[in-house]
Amino acid sequence: MNETRAGTWQAWIEPIGDDPEALSAADIARTRLAAGARLGDLRRARLIEISGSARDRGGVEALLHDSALIYNPHKERCHVRRDAAEPVPGAPPDTRLLLVTERGRTRRPAIERWWSRAARERVTAREGMVWALRFEAGADAESMSRELGTLRDPRHGLFCNPFAQAMDASGARAPVPWIGDEDDRAGRGVTR
Amino acid sequence: MSASVAVIQLPGVNCERETAAAIEAAGLSATVFAGTRAPEDLRGFDAFVIPGGFSYQDRVRAGALAAKHPIVGVLAEEADRGKPVLGICNGAQVLVEAGLVPGGAGVELALARNRMPARDGYYTRWIRVRVEETPCVFARGLEPGLVIPLPMAHGEGRFVGATGRMEALEAAGQIPFRYARSDGRVATEFPDDPNGSERAAAGVCNARGNVLALMPHPERAIARDAVARSIAGAWSAPAPCDLDAGAGGPGPGLLLFRALREHLEDA
Predict the structure, then answer these.
(1) How far is CA A2 from CA A44, A51, A181, in A?
(2) Active-site pick, B89, B97, B170, B263
(3) Is the peptide bond before B144 cis (omega within 30 degrees of 0)?
(4) What are A28-58's pLDDT values in tens digits?
(5) Which of A19, A105, B194, B203 is found 20 to 30 A from A139 (Cα to Cα)?
(6) B107 part of contact set with chain A, CB < 8 Å
């Protein structure tokens, strides 16, 4: 972690209601993919990491809420994390998390510009998608989640096409920060 | 009796009617095949087109969910038997996500988000594609070097693969259409190459040449009067032709469907 990543705030943004994207993905995983038969629950969250802000938790939450750019409070909820010891929202201990990012393009300049105007702070903003998977008791959740993660063929993998995206896996307590620097992910065909 | 082509209508597809019209304009029979029908019913068709749109709302990733549909499994089997399969735009994304293109072992490519200077997301404009030396049936009879104006409209159309894969596909003639400049040379920068695609690839086919993933929309260019005047070049003037495709005579997009017809007539 370089110096500019110190003091990273994570915004976990989830739909308030049912998430059609997660529902569709779960249905496909359970019915079409070899590793999905024992998939229990599947949820999805956008993960935005803001690095370089001197604001306290309340100040960050207020900015995120007011942005109209980062999330829509009418249909999304936002949970802020600062430390890996803090729980990930809606992720019991048996949850496996898959972070999927676009290779070479995790930065969100529009958010950075907005933050600069609204908060008078220069920050870096990165974004990825997190899939939260829970499996039936007794299933090898770690290997099954990885198997579901990386696309290999029509029967194997869904969430990450490794030629355009990068994937990282975690237990229920995701690291902070989690989204790597762009240059770390600029290679092709490899998942961490 | 003309050969029959199924236009696959998965949920979220929105170009099935114009695609069927383009097929009919080329002298083939077109049937819009709803995704709710039994996939086995596809066996009787001679060729297949997955049209553009937003199958399954692009959930997870463009083409990702449709690629798992049993219909696509049947298409893979029919393609193995040599039947032609064309994926246009979202259809191309489905074929790439399913591994039918380039057709080796599993998924080998992605259609990634566009890379454009100082902009992001969905982009649409008329572009030029150049025909390359290729075994692709959808380029049959087209001279290498021929430049064709077509419209493109997508947010994820950048062909990428593992290091060296796109170069190998190019060497094998599996990049039948590449983005081109007005002078006919391969595009090297935006906006002639509208998405940053590796090797300026607008379309990639399998080794046999019967499955093509094509990002531009030939079905939107079957009438000459539809071609943007700023880019039309030799296609700007009405010309006599044996194909009655609509206003101003047949347009450049019809060439690909006519190539399919010629292939099916000889098959």
Answers:
(1) 28, 11, 9
(2) B89
(3) no
(4) 999 999 899 999 999 999 999 999 999 999 9
(5) A19
(6) yes
